[in-house]
Amino acid sequence: MANNILLVDDDKEIREWLELDLKFSGYNVTTAKDGAEGLQKAINENYNLIILDVMMPKIDGFTVCQNIRKVKKEIPIILLTAKGTIDDKVTGFDAGANDYLVKPFDIQELLVRMRALLRRNEPTQLTSTETLEIGEIKLYPDSLEVSISSKLIKLTPTEFEILYCLMQHVNQAVGYSTLLDEVWGYDADEDVRMVRVHVGCLRQKIEPNPKSPSFVKTVTNVGYKLTPFLEEQ
Which residues of the chain fall below pLDDT 70? Predict the structure, then answer.
């Protein structure tokens, strides 16, 4: 059965081009021409993935994403934007986006990222009844939250996946390629920067001092290592 995709973009030419290519690739596509229409459809209808432009009239993509996440925590969201600064990406990830593409982009790149996110969202992933606890770090998949020293912290889906991956390899160096494969479902050298941005956002939430991390430590030229809080005492 084909996946249902919601495409939200105020640029008619881009919207029609993407709709045609996505349908040709086997997806069922519903479109929306602005943020207000996109938010209404996202909340009231069921989709497997949402492609969301950032700069739109009525409601911008960041705000749409935030409001979708209040109701639908699991649905994959890809942001499209002409802006590619680190601050913009951080804003998008904080809003709850799973991935971020800067215009102009190749349709094949979008399709690869879509397939990766759709695979991550399949029922074979971590179920809501499982809880993972190591040291003072405890993950709650049903709410995408982490508890550290009894303090409950809300994570974005991608931040949660990164922390979950690191907890599977506690006290071991986890390479960028492993994170890209396990979290995003593909490995591309140019996306190492994206991993760093997400890890930076995660540290801002869970570290007592993000500039000197206690939990998620950098392994130079390799990736990251998770050291449980209890082992730091």
Answer: 1, 84, 120-130, 186-190, 229-233
Q: What is the pLDDT of residue 138?
A: 87
Q: What is the pLDDT of residue 180?
A: 85
- The contacts of residue 64 (CB under 8 Å, 6+ apart) are 8, 35, 38, 39, 42, 52, 56
Its pTM stands at 0.67
pLDDT at 128: 47
